[in-house]
Amino acid sequence: MTPGLFYAVVSGMLAAMASASGKMAAASSDARWLCGAVVTPAALDCDSILLYVRGSCFLLVFLLNAVMWTVFTKALRLSPTTLSATITNLASNLFFTALTGRLLFGETLGATWFVGAGLIVTGVALIHNAAADAEREAQRKTS
Fold first, then answer.
1. Which residues neighbour 135 within 8 Å (Cβ) at sequence distance 6 or greater?
2. How far apart (Å, rounded) are the C-alpha atoms in residues 48 and 121?
3. In angstroms, rounded to a whole number, what is the distance separating the alpha carbons of residues 6 and 4?
4. What is the rounded distance in angstroms from the CA atom of residue 52 to the CA atom of residue 36?
5. pLDDT recorded at residue 14
6. Which of 66, 122, 121 is nearest to 93 (CA)?
7. At the N or C end, where does the chain have fewer CB atoms within 10 A?
């Protein structure tokens, strides 16, 4: 695996983590679960600090997205093509989002999710290939 593709996978994972943090910040029941998992062993009252947990998750969304964009930019720079970095990022984001949803939130994934994810990845690949073909054609006409 090239360094660029490694960074693309990491940026996809960071995007999935940002999404999970956003869900924790927005859904009080999910934040309550997180608070209970972290705070209850410390014998603290979860209700009194739930607002801080949700606020921390909200801030984590911005932090993770900032790091994700930094890493993705590095992936674009180090990858053989922008297509490979974009497709790898997208596929890893879908994979880690599914994994996070299953492990943290108990979500189940049906066949339609897998078909939809496959169509999204295929569509992005087709769009990038068409753009690359148009760029090569334009370069050929100018030379």
1. none
2. 43
3. 5
4. 13
5. 97
6. 121
7. C
Tokens of 112: 């339609």
Worst-scoring range by mean pLDDT, 23-27, 59-63, 70-74, 114-118? 23-27
- Between residues 62 and 103, the one the model is more confident about: 62
| Domain range for 61 | 3-142
Which pLDDT tens digit goes with each residue over 44-93? 677 777 778 788 889 999 999 999 999 999 999 998 888 888 888 988 99
Classify residue 43 by its DSSP letter. T
The rounded distance, in Å, linking the Cα atoms of 55 and 78 is: 35
CA distances from 125 to 11, 20, 96 (A): 18, 26, 19
Specify the amino acid at residue 135.
E
Q: How many domains does the chain have?
A: 1
For 10, residues 6+ apart whose C-beta sits below 8 A from its C-beta are: 71, 75, 92
Reduced to 3 states (helix: H, G, I; strand: E, B; else coil), residue 27 is coil
10-19, 83-92, 108-117, range with greatest mean pLDDT: 10-19
